[in-house]
Predict the structure.
Amino acid sequence: MEIIGPLLISTIAGLSTTLGALVIFFKIRSKNINKFITFCLSFSIAIMIGISITELIPESLFQLLKQNISKGILISIISFIIGVILIKIFTKFIDNQKKNTTNLYKLGILSMLALMLHNFPEGIATFLSAYQDIDLGIKLGIAIMLHNIPEGISIAVPIYYATGNKREAIKKAFISGLAEPFGAILAFLLFKNLITDTFISVILLLVAGIMITISIEEIYPEIRKYKEHKLFYFGMVTGIVLLIINHFCF
């Protein structure tokens, strides 16, 4: 029974992506839709790049360098590059499979993929932390929940405005969040025998490569099309402020 608490914490933290997706129910006037999309996409860039630079890369690099400096640097670079290559391949795959796919829909799917990979090791970390110390697990779960909410926004908003289908947008955000409890279940089944710090570090560096590449090569060019420069800066600043609050409070 002692696994119920850690599993519940991981599930709540993961599925909070669905809370972020609820922004699609806001009634936005047609003349303000481009501004709203610009804000949400800019917000997504700040969250994705911010998490990568302030959390994923330094924490993973530190873990790998503790074992061997030269080997750690090499593994870090290779892991990051693999992430970049993987998302480029997946982007081409989407383009080839669906010729009529809009850019917004593609952004939503790419964000979902990146955040699923991101949520998976988070689920492992949350479960293991809560399993060892329930108070630590709750604290970590709250922190993850807070940055999973904007991640849900980055998935749901582009998919909804590309398809007009609220159910589809909510479903994609929900699926992304499921990666967190899935990671928790895997942590319980395999525990620390197979899930090492090196394994998690490599995955997180790979995810950092994916999220930074999506932000620069896919999301930013889409934002420029709307020519809403003030909303771009506002979205970026809002995302950065939220990350700072998350870091200092949790």
